[in-house]
Each structure stands twice: as C-alpha cells, then as structure tokens.
Amino acid sequence: MGLVAKIKTMLEKWGLIERSEFDHIRTSDYPHVHFAEWTGQPYTTKKEILEGPRGAEVRAQLERFSKVLRDRKASGKPLIFQD
Amino acid sequence: MDEFGFQWFLLPLIGGYRFIRKFRLYEYRTLAESGYHTFFQAAFFGILLFGISLVFTGFVSWLFPNLSRLWYEHVSRVRFSGTCMLAFTVGVVMPYLLNQKTKEKHLAWALDSFKKMNRSLDLMLTQAFLDRKMVAVTLVNDKVYIGFPLAPLEVEANREYISLGLNYSGHRDQNRQLVIDYDVAQETETRVEIPLDKVVSVSYFDPDFYGKLSVQQTEETPSAPM
User: What is the nearest CA distance from B77 to chain A, expressed in angstroms?
Assistant: First the structure.
C-alpha cells in the first residue's frame, strides 16, 4: 500500500474524510468520456458511443428498435408505447 | 525599514482561487457553487499555499542569503512579497501537474461532487452516459426526445441544459402515452440541447424493453369487431 493510500485509510478511520461510493471508478474504463478543458465537465459524443469499443452492440440495439418502429409503421399500427 | 504591502496578499488569494478552479477534485463544485462559499474556499487554499511557500522561501533564504538579498534589492522591498509571488505561482501551476497525475480519479471525483451537491439529475445523466444508456425527456409542450446524454447538466449563463445525442423523438398523445414517430438512430451528428426549465420528466429508456413490450401489446390487442 502506497503512502497516500495509508494516509487516506488513516483519515477515513478517524472519520476525517468519507469513503466515496465512486472510488472504484477508473476514468480509463470509460474511453468515450472526455473532460472539457475550461469547465472540467465530463462529456462524450454520439459518434463515440456508436463507433467506440461497445459501438457495435449499441448500434445493434438501436437497429432492433428501429425495426420495430418500421414494422409498425408499415403495417399501419399506431406508434404508441406504454411507459 | 521594510514595507508591508497588503496588496501582495491578494496573490495567494488569487492562487488559491486558481487552484480550486483548475484542480479537478474541486473544479466542478467551484463552478456550481458561487459567492461566499467560493471566496472562503479560495481564501483557505490561499493561506495554505502561503504557508507552504513561507516554509520554502524561509529555507531558501537561510540556505542562499544572497538570493534573498537579490530579490530585496532588485524586485521588491515589501516583506513576504517573494512568498506571496511563490504562493500565486504554485496555485496556478500545481493544478495542471496534479491533474496529470490523477487522471484516473477524475470521473470518480465528478460523480462524487454531484452526489455531495445532491444533483440527482446530474448523477442519473452521468450514469446513463457512462453505461451508454438512453433517456427519454418529456417537455412541457408534450414533445419527447430520446437519446444518449452527452454530458451532465450543462450550465450556460445560469440556465441549465440537457445535452442529448438524439436517436428518436415523438410526443405524448391525449392519454399521455408515448408516440415515437421520428428515427435518427443511425445518424452520428444529431444533437439537441434542452433547457431544463422546459422539462417535465426524465426517465431511462431501454429500447429492448420497449420493443418487447410493443410486441406484447400488439399481440394482446383484440381485433376490432367486424
């Protein structure tokens, strides 16, 4: 355990800082997320979602739903969805 | 006799502000919060930077008295001016160095900031865009936009916006049911900015779930009497 981690564990034990529920999140696990230079706000783009590492899976999911819409339209059924 | 210039003490304060404004751990909270809270936070970090700089300049003056004399004779005769200047420089430069070293934590810090500030909509939108999930946003005029959130709430000129990578849109009918009649799912450049004050509700939208539900509804719908 590194020095920083040891100090952090000690401060948590003394109740001086709280353990964050997001501690396990690593930025590199989400390659489609970037940070705006000026505001520091995380952001992504639709292009990166559709063409990124899981893009094929996401595009297939969208295609399935688009097909449902097309089929309903073609058969003259209403495009109403209960939610 | 040495002068004592209070104006020099603005430098650690500005350094403190630059530190909380640019270091990712505090950045989002500094932007979202304002007024006295930011001022006192900047003052706290300004004092901290001044203290660290004082230890450093004290040590350097003791080690290299000529350097200290050089500053006194050629730059400023004001007491602590060098320390104040160093505090300002550290406050400006340090966030960039720390940000480079802590890249892996930036996302966790942003989420933690939203949680601490009770920004539940920010949390929802962020978790949706981390997991590449869609949300359905219903507006006051019954228009419905469905897409990927591209950021947490965007704040611009005190107005908050939801930024969506649009996939589908539609409206609520007279029975408040969702009608989806526009499909741009395969387009990559479709984006819509929705002012938060025009939003009635935001919910997760799972296309597979709605697709299956749609098929079930179609099967269950009795045929019209002849």
Answer: 36
The CATH code for residues B119-205 is 2.30.30.100
Confidence category of residue B220, pLDDT binned at 50, 70, 90:
low
Contact yes or no for B25/B102 (Cβ under 8 A): yes
Which pLDDT tens digit goes with each residue over B91-138?
Answer: 999 998 998 888 888 888 888 887 777 777 877 888 888 888 999 999
A82 part of a folded domain:
no
Inter-chain Cβ pairs, chain A and chain B, closer than 8 A: 144
Question: Of B33, B54, B51, B17, which is closest to residue B116 (Cα–Cα)?
Answer: B33
CB contact under 8 A, B177 and A30: no
Please list the pLDDT of chain A residue by residue as tens digits (83 residues): 577 778 778 877 887 677 778 888 888 888 888 887 776 778 889 988 888 788 888 899 999 989 988 888 888 877 777 77
Q: What is the DSSP letter of B8?
A: G
* Out of A26, A50, A65, closest to residue B207 by CB: A65
Which residue of B lies nearest to A19 if distances are taken between CA atoms?
B112
Nearest CB neighbour to B150, from listed A22, A43, A78: A43
CB contact under 8 A, A44 and B115: no
For A38, the domain range is 3-74
Q: Per the domain annotation, does A26 fall within a domain?
A: yes
Q: What is the predicted pLDDT for the residue at A25?
A: 86
As a whole number of angstroms, the distance between CA B209 and CA B218 comes to 14
Chain B residues in contact with A17 (beta carbon < 8 A):
none
pLDDT of residue B226: 39
Distance from CA of A37 to the nearest CA of B (A): 9
Boundaries of every domain in chain B: 6-105, 119-205
Q: What is the 3-state secondary structure (H, E, C) of B102-138?
A: CHHHHHHHHHHHHHHCCCHHHHHHHHHHHCCCEEEEE
Number of domains in chain A: 1
